[in-house]
Amino acid sequence: MANDLIANLNSPAERRKQVRLRVRPDLQTFEQKYEGKSFTVIKDPVCLRYYRFNKQEHFVFQLFDGKHTMEEVQEAFEDEFKPMRLEQSDLEGFARQLVTAGLVQNEQPGSAQHLFQRRAKQRRLRRLATLSNILYLKIPVFDPDRLLTWMFRYLSWVFTTWFFAASVGLMLAAVVHVTLHFNTFQAKLPAYQEFFTWNSVLYMWISLGIVKVIHEFGHGLSCKAFGGECHEMGVLLMCLSPALYANVTDAWTLADKWKRIIISFAGIYVELVIASLATFVWWYTPVYPVINNIALCIMVLCSVSTVMFNANPLMRFDGYYILADWLEVPNLREKANKFLNNLFQAKCLGIDVPPEAYMAPWRKWLFLIYAVASWVYRWVVTFSILWFFADFMGPKLKVLSQMLAIMSLASLFIWPGYKLIKNIRQRGRLPDMKAARVYVTLAVFASLLLAFFFLPLPVSRVHETGLVAVDPDALEAVMLAEPARLESLADVGPGQQVRRGQLLAAFKSEALEIELRKAKAISNEQWSTVELMNTSAANARRTGNDAADKQYAAEAKKARAKAETADADVGRLLARKSHLEELKAPRDGMLVTAPKRDEIGKLYDRGYTDAPPVFAVGDPGRLILKVPVTPMHFRVLKDDLAARGELEASVYAKGRSDRTFSGKLRKLPAQNAATVPLALTQRGGGSLAVKPSEDPNVLIPLAQVYLVEIEMTDSDTAIDPGQLAVVKIHARWRSGAWWVARALSNSLDIGLY
């Protein structure tokens, strides 16, 4: 039927005689102000769509009453708005738009069928659009208007001044509380791996559903409070988590844009109130782990995620509608995308597109920037969420990660490309293209594609935070020869300079003391035996007993030998004791390793060859950086190191912004790190997450990591061992296609690299 009507409009002989259009009687009309001018909003109750007409457009729209022909409409317009002229082609174009939108129909039988066909087509398009956004699926379920009317009778006090003041005071109290106790607040927050456990994710999943139900009822009740209607609610799958959504597009019938903004902001406001309450619950319930974790999840969901997603105008959530109402630009994204699409077709393909109505230059730039920024932001957010899912679910759910990645690629690239090609092909537009512009566009596109696949870029550089340490080859260790207990420490600690022979600590070995007492006892016993044998030999000589004299003399000689041996043992034991009691620096340099003060009295069982040193003194001029790298980066470094022999590195030390230090990577570890230094972990200020072990002093990385050593070639006294520094390892440049393939392969586990 629509085709017959358009065919009639294209017949110059018949259109003034036969074509009479009639506005659908079920349409609803509302007045609205925009930039100081009056406009009329037309509501389509069947499709739940809204159209805004200016004064001239609405005048023509009203003349489509089934009685006026197109020619009569033209004459009436020119009489009303003298000296303006209305070209017949412009009138026909306006009529075609109304017919396509389903707002007008002719008087022929069966014309209503077109309306239902259009409604069915619109539903199909909505389903396709829904499937194209896998992280935000909406499924209509019921009409909540009667439920909202009933709820509003009991919740109208929410829209009073006193409740607004109380809720704002609650939010300010939460902000002030967090600000005053920020250090404690930050310390109480769990680390990434501690927060995103299965229990926390389950709490977040349930909390998100409940919070979003309250959020959407906030929209619906606000719309009801200002006289609007809400005729659609349904299930919302946001990031695969079930929630509720409310269609409050009826707010466009309100003349006051600030009321529309309040309706859009209502959900965010409700979540901020909930986040404020959850903040105090979380702060004061550390002894109740379940309640504490749930409150933390709600606090994060209703504050950080609400600001990042709901309040962000680049995504089609509440912030988008707030911005559209504030700018007074309905369907902001569609208009921006249409403007960008028409600009591309006109400038790049040379296709004649319908001319845009006058638009201020700032608004053209707004549409252009918004269309590009919203697409890029949607791309970044989608892949960030997919990366989190892949990282959280792990290799056991590899297939699900692959499916999500493929569906997101289809929604972000394939579907928009399909719509663009379809738009170009419709109505025979291919012959309308200007060959020169098409060739230039194809050349530019081909150049970008070649650059993407072949142009070397610094995308493979490894950028991590490393720990400054003394080169192990320049370290001299102070070892314990046997287990001993720390008695005292000298007034010197790691990072301080020491001199050769300087006292470091005093140890005491109980086993050595026992052995020393035994050796002294043996020595005393043997010397007593020597003295006794000498006395007996002297008595035998006085009595002339030569045989006894010789026997006693031999026994004395044996006892003397044993006594001298015992004395030697005592001397060695005393030397060992002296070494323990006065543990000294073996060289000039910097003290790198030393016990802590609270370890005085601790037994050091380090009397074996491979034990770590108690003290270590090194050359402060020979420094390295221990840099943790992921297996993905390790493979890159391994390939490049095999090809080049060594890799350059740039080191950025804290407090030394005046210069960049240099380093070299000459070798790689044979295997991944079993333990990591405290400074590189989240506890010590680094980024590595660790898991608990039997020994609290042994830190085991939660994920596989390699500790790469960078040799600094131009260090100075401003860099001290133990501090953190940012390291950039200059790997071979690679193409953007390589970077994308590697990121997808390692983040989403889809086997591209």
Automatic annotation (TrEMBL):
It holds the Pfam family Peptidase_M50. This is Peptidase M50 domain-containing protein. The keyword Transmembrane applies. Keywords: Membrane, Transmembrane, Transmembrane helix. The keyword Cell wall biogenesis/degradation does not apply. Residues 204-294 form the Peptidase M50 domain. Belongs to the peptidase M50B family. PANTHER family: MEMBRANE-BOUND TRANSCRIPTION FACTOR SITE-2 PROTEASE, PROTEASE M50 MEMBRANE-BOUND TRANSCRIPTION FACTOR SITE 2 PROTEASE. It comes from Gemmata palustris. It is found in: Endomembrane system. InterPro entries: MBTPS2 (IPR001193), Peptidase_M50 (IPR008915). It comes from the Bacteria.
